[in-house]
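Repro:
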Amino acid sequence: MIDALTVAVGAAALALAAWCGFAAYRDQPTKDWHFIGMAAVTVLVAVQLVIGVVLLTRGEKPDDGTGIFIAYLLGATAAVPAAGFMSLAERTRWGSVTVAAGAVVLAVLEVRLFDIWGGSGA
């Protein structure tokens, strides 16, 4: 995996979490600008998905197993869009909380993907 992309996705996810968390603090639902932010984070994760699949098809293997790597990669790809759709159903501050939580989950998944691929050096 590309370490810089993993860090970029994690940082973007945490920025989205802070932004939506601030909206929830201000008692605001998710707005159009939040969905643009979610789309930007999702594009980064989609790029990561493509790169991960390309690396696997070239024969490179993650340290902790291909199956678990693919599962985490798909989970990371679905985290923010799923939270975004759930926030559409909850048009209160709790929709913003949902997106913030989904973005934090994505950041944690990025750390785990880094470890699974072998980035921890262990």
